Please model this.
Amino acid sequence: MKRIILFLICSVFILSSQAQTIVWKELASLPEGYNGGEAVTLNNEIYFIAGRTKTAKSAAFYKFNPQQNQWTRLADIPQSATNFAMATVNRKIYAIGGDL
Model:
């Protein structure tokens, strides 16, 4: 039974990916390079907590509006962190765990 279900899931994925043309488009980059950050979507926008720059942890918090192709710097988070998870629940953003 497990093999049949797996086959059906793979078939649907393959068929759906062939049924539409995927076009990649480059949008605005973040103002600075980061790693160990995290992003979530909320209300058709992307929210990003920076994680770490080349030299230090960062508390930077950004919002990206795809319609305007623009990043906006928001108020920093209370404490910098890296390698955490983010989620949205009831139109609120939560950052969970990570290295402070």
